[in-house]
Design goal:
Blueprint (H helix, E strand, L loop, with lengths): L11 E6 L4 H16 L6 H20 L2 E4 L11 H9 L4 H8 L7 E2 L7 H4 L2 E8 L4 E2 L3 E8 L4 E6 L4 E8 L2 E3 L10 E4 L5 E5 L5 E8 L2 H5 L4 E2 L11
Helix pairs in contact: 1-2, 1-4, 3-4
Bound molecules: fe (ii) ion (FE2).
Fe (ii) ion binds next to loops.
C-alpha cells in the first residue's frame, strides 16, 4: 500500500514569515538566480517562461508570506536522496544543491496520486518548496524538486493550463527519448504537451521544477496521465 499523505494531518499556518527562515529564502534565491541568469538558448518561449517565473517569485519574496508548517513526509525513493545531493554538489547546480541540503529535514515528499502505480511508488516522489500549499505560499507559481531512483520510467502525462520547466540538478535523464539532459539543462513543457521521463541506469536523478499558471489551476492541477491510472492532485 503506498504511503499516501494523511489527509487528517493538515498543514498549519506558522507564526513565522518567510524572512524569518533564511534557509528557505536562500533556496528561493537559487531558483531566482537560475531563472534570471540561465540562458534561454535563443528560445522566445523559454525566455518568456523564465521571466514569468522570476517575476512571480520576486512578488512572493516581496510579500514575505507566512510559512505553512506542513507535516514531514518521506517516501521510499528518499533513500536515494543523499546520493543525488552528493552527485549534484559536484556538478553545475551545486549552489542549489547546497541550499536544498539545508532544508532536507523539513521536506514533504509526496506522490500526487490517489493510487500510485506500485513500481513507481518505490522510485519517485516530489516535494514542493513554494506553492498554494506551502511551505512558502504562492498562488500562481509552484517550485519544487522531483527525485527519481535509477532506471525509472515516469509515465506519459501532460499539464492543462500549466507551463512546466524542469532543470537537471543531479543525474541524467531523457524526455520522450529525445535527448539526454545533464545538470544545468532546462526543458520547457507547455500546456498540453505530452511528456514521459526516463532516468539513467546507475544513479538517481534530481530535477528542480517550476509551474506557472492561474491560481485555480495550480491549486487543483488535474494532471492528465496517458497511462491507465489517472492522476489526482499535484504531480510533476
Ligand atoms: Fe510534468
Amino acid at each position: 500500500m503506498p504511503d499516501l499523505p494523511n489527509p487528517e494531518t493538515p498543514a498549519e499556518a506558522s507564526a513565522l514569515r518567510l524572512m524569518d527562515c533564511p534557509n528557505w529564502v536562500y533556496l528561493l534565491r537559487e531558483f531566482d538566480a537560475l531563472y534570471r541568469y540561465g540562458s534561454a538558448g535563443g528560445s522566445p518561449a523559454i525566455r518568456s517562461h523564465r521571466k514569468r517565473v522570476r517575476d512571480r517569485l520576486s512578488a512572493v519574496l516581496a510579500a514575505n508570506p507566512a510559512m505553512v508548517d506542513r507535516p514531514r513526509e518521506t517516501k521510499p525513493v528518499v533513500a536515494h536522496f543523499a546520493r543525488a545531493l552528493d552527485l549534484g554538489e559536484r556538478a553545475a547546480m551545486q549552489g542549489m544543491v547546497r541550499a536544498l541540503r539545508e532544508v532536507k529535514d523539513d521536506l514533504t515528499w509526496e506522490y500526487g496520486y490517489e493510487k500510485v502505480p506500485k513500481a513507481l511508488a518505490q522510485k519517485y516522489a516530489y516535494c514542493e518548496v513554494l506553492g498554494p500549499r506551502g511551505p512558502v505560499q504562492g498562488t500562481t507559481l509552484t517550485l519544487g524538486f522531483v527525485l527519481f531512483a535509477p532506471n525509472t520510467t515516469y509515465p506519459q502525462h501532460s499539464h492543462h493550463d500549466i507551463e512546466e520547466s524542469y532543470t537537471s540538478v543531479s543525474g541524467a535523464w531523457s524526455e520522450n527519448n529525445a535527448a539526454v539532459f545533464a545538470p544545468g539543462s532546462l526543458i520547457l513543457n507547455t500546456s498540453g504537451h505530452e511528456h514521459r521521463i526516463t532516468t539513467g541506469d546507475r544513479d538517481p536523478c534530481l530535477l528542480a521544477y517550476a509551474w506557472a499558471g492561474p491560481a485555480e489551476r495550480l491549486a487543483t492541477p488535474d494532471m492528465k496521465l496517458t497511462a491507465p491510472r489517472r492522476a489526482r492532485g499535484a504531480g510533476v
